[in-house]
Design goal:
three-stranded antiparallel β-sheet; Alpha-D-Glucose-1,6-Bisphosphate, Chain A, domain 4; alpha+beta; coiled coil; five-stranded mixed β-sheet
Length: 307
Amino acid sequence: MPTGTRPAAKEDKRRQYHCARMVEFRRKKKQEREELHKELRRLQRAMKQQEEFVRNEAASRQFRDSSTMVLLREVIVEKEALLTQDIALRKEIDRHEPIQTLVQEEPQCYSEYQSQSDKLMLSPSVDQVGWQVHVPNGEQSFYVHPFSCKEFGAFPNPFDPEYTADSSSYSYAGTYLGWKVYRVPSHEKPLSVHVRFTKRIQCSVDTAFKAWWDKEAELFPILVTPIDWEYRQRHKVTTQVLQEFDRDSHMMFHNIPGQTHFRYMFLGRRAEWKLLDGRRKMGYSMLMVEPKVTKRAEEHRDNVKCL
């Protein structure tokens, strides 16, 4: 055998071995995702069965006796536990999504198995009446109701062309914490203003996207802070994902501790575009929304302010 063919044969063998490892890697990750989704569906079915059982039990009696009320309380507690597991499963599923980036870096293996890498989307469950949101460190919890798909669609999307149609004349306002700030005042609504923050970073879009997935809770800015609040207290801020509409849209919650705890809900979005020159562009938005919580239960708390 000519000596020139040995390196080529060795390289082919190494490539085949690497491809086989990537195929096995993707197969295991896909199996893990399917198992997580299967467990999530099982928990949701169990929760609905428990709720239906209690409704039927209560409807069969003209008056609710003490045993029914005890059973109802037990089901509510179990429902909250299932919802907590539901959120944990959603986060675990999100953690596996960046594997798609690794797969795309292996085009020879990926082309054959692309159909097996379809993303599974978790839609908001509109049949849930709500759940209790627990805040760590012993802070007071609150009850929140989920937004329906119709309500989600009614929220303004900062990435829609119609949203920024009247904001083409952004003017440079200065810099803030290393970000360039552009603003457009609204003449129709004097108290409303469009602000855009931009910053150029020395990394690829894929690297930035992976960093966002890994440290999403830490990267979201704090929109409102109490008086005398300092950034070194950032680690005390609680960030929770309350609802997932699609892979890039989440209803989230911030709790900023202080003498008066500040709380607000916001709709976080991610988007990616490809410019005419071939470059890729990423964008993130935060839209504060009116929380669907039991406000009467919050108003009497002097040390909690819901925005």
